[in-house]
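Q: For a teaching session next week I want to show students how multiple molecules come together into a single three-dimensional assembly. I've collected the sequence lines for a complex. Could you give me the predicted structure tokens for the whole thing so I can convert them for display?
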Amino acid sequence: MRTIGRSLALIAFFLLLWEGLVIVAGLPRFILPPPSLVAQTLWFSRSLIAEHALITGAEVLIGLVLGAALGFFFAILLATSRTARAILRPALVFSQTVPVFALAPILTLWLGYGLWSKVAMALLIIFFPVTSAFYDALMRTPEGWIGLARVMGANRGRILWHVRIPAALPGFASGLRLATVYAPIGAIIGEWVGASRGLGYLMLLANGRAKIDLMFAALIVLAILTLLLHAAVDRFGRWLSQGRI
Amino acid sequence: MTPTLSLNGTAHIGATRIFGPLSMMAPAGAWTCLLGPSGVGKSTILRLFAGLDEGITFDGDYGASDGGPLMPRVAMMAQDDLLLPWLDVMGNVTLGARMRGERPDHTRARDILARVGLADHAAKPPSALSGGQRQRAALARTLMEDRPIVLLDEPFSALDAQTRARMQRLAGEVLRERTVLHITHDAAEAARLGDQILLMSRDRIDAIAPPEGTSPRAPDAEETLRFEAQLMRRLMADA
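A: Of course. Below is the structure for the complete assembly, covering every listed component.
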């Protein structure tokens, strides 16, 4: 409770500072709108913002689920097959040297202006941290547990299923947590490059029409969306890691 | 049938000689304690018998006296209890069945848990147990495997003195009749538990006649204490 109180106080202080700065410096609202105006816009344009937020939320969520699933299976493939490691690991690292931003126009070209090019962007960003964190954890299974399982007569598949994967789930969870913060970046960039819906599109549109208050309002909603998603994933991660750390 | 374990040869890890040439035997149905300084290769012997022999090059032969395979007849217990933290005590005790894709026998597991004094702890996670209780859970898991050969790698060395004494008696009772090979650094432990006591150095293993009486012996019996002192002197002289 005390931390929440302190955060609220900090936010209130920051908002007051912002409002004061706008008044004292006499900044025009198309450069920096005061928070009171942003709040008004947020309220009056709520259905417009909500409509776009729903799209961005869907993009991020689908990207997160697909990216996490893909990362999960890729990490297991890498951890269990020497051949897969030899072939795929350099490719995986190389894929990270290409900025996802640079891929956005191509993905839009291939997948169109709709939902899927943004899902693909989010997925590409999520995939690597999940794969890498889960793979590292899979490779760090305590030797003693594997030895015990082998003496008990377990084959490789059962050792993977009953020991290595459960032991590595906290690693998967931490990769997922990291991915959740990055995922919206992918979706927003995708929307900037070409879209007709979504918070990124709305921000670009508002910016072009000098409606900076609407831009800020959309930005705040995006931040809240990311925070909520992170909180949900964090809970999920803690549930996955139950008793494992 | 409880087999006798024997080993005869030299072990290398990479280019480094770990021990040998030497030979040793752990007689069927007896408790053999293997003592010796750290790094002399005691654990390597255990790993060979357990079938965890990656990286070990062994010239010679080792195995069960009846010529049968070792792996399906061996259970192992180490200093680290190796309980899986995401399973409760019952899940850990019945782990072996799940590892082989068999149905766990919960009735038998409950009997065994009662035998090691953990009847009320079956549903608890390992993190809720004390160090001694964790080792008892590991012992229950070992018993659940019901193997004729049991390999012990300093399983009691991290416990406090009272808990260790209790665990030694319990293990000595419940593992009787099996072929036990027990690595230990503790002369008192060897004096209590050993039917046969082996002293290992890099080039040889000497058998020492155990104290009188059947194991587990009372830790404070005169004979046990005298033997412990004698063994201690022997260890110091070797060092």
